[in-house]
Amino acid sequence: MNVVGITCSCLPKSLSQKAVKAFLQGAEEAGHNTLLIPISKGLSGCTGCHACKKLDGFCVQQDALRPYFDALPDAGAVVFGAGIYMGYPQGEAWSFMNRHFCLHDCVGEGARCRIEPGKKLYTIFAQGAPDNPKYRANYEELLRLFDGWGFERMEPLVVTGPTSEDAIQRAYELGRAI
Ligand SMILES: Cc1cc2nc3c(=O)[nH]c(=O)nc-3n(C[C@H](O)[C@H](O)[C@H](O)COP(=O)(O)O)c2cc1C
Q1: What Pfam families does this protein map onto (predicted)?
Q2: Does residue 7 line the site of ligand 1, with CB under 6 A?
Q3: How confident is the model over 134-165, as pLDDT tens digits?
């Protein structure tokens, strides 16, 4: 299986990035092909140009997400990592989600998704606060969007200060068991 990892944080000691890398290492050791795509630099938001609807293809922007849209059709799983800013996934994460607008061939009723359903989506969030229901509700609200594109969402993994090593080990095991 092809497994694509996306990381939003550009911090050199990023915990979410460390966990995504551990996940991919596990997946690789289990015999899968992995690809890591950092999107903290060179990422654009959706411009609303609708080229993806007019030209019947993925987003036309040549930016940090180009390799993602190239790899997505043949991927069996995506692992996505971000830091938590102001209680929500950081801005890059929201831009990443917005850019999935191009997965539908038209707007509104009757839209067809351009990728096969059933791709697994693993999410990893790093935060300063302990794991808590309020933040989890925020993640759920945002991640629900992925249901409309046919992703099969897995329970988010939260990485937080004192227990970060355990969470990174858990990320490795999730990748290994994919
Ligand atoms: C601008 C900013 C806002 C943050 N807001 C929160 C927050 O609301 N709640 C929280 O638990 N941690 C918050 N943090 C801490 C980060 O979530 C934490 O440093 C996390 O490890 C960042 O992810 P990363 O290590 O993958 O970069 C914030 C950090 C920054 C820089």
Answers
A1: FMN_red
A2: no
A3: 999 999 999 999 999 999 999 999 999 888 99
Query: Is residue 85 lining ligand 1, measured as CB closer than 6 Å?
Result: yes
SS3 string, the chain, reads CEEEEEECCCCCCCHHHHHHHHHHHHHHHCCCEEEEEECCCCCCCCCCCCHHHHCCCCCCCCCCCHHHHHHHHHEEEEEEEEEEECCEECHHHHHHHHHHHHHECCCCCCCCECCCCCCEEEEEEEECCCCCHHHHHHHHHHHHHHHHHCCEECCCEEEEHHHHHHHHHHHHHHHHCC
Question: Cα separation of 55 and 57, whole Å?
Answer: 6
Average pLDDT over residues 119-145: 97
Q: How far is the CA of 19 from the centre of ligand 1 (A)?
A: 15
- The 10s digit of each residue's pLDDT in 14-36 is 999 999 999 999 999 999 999 99
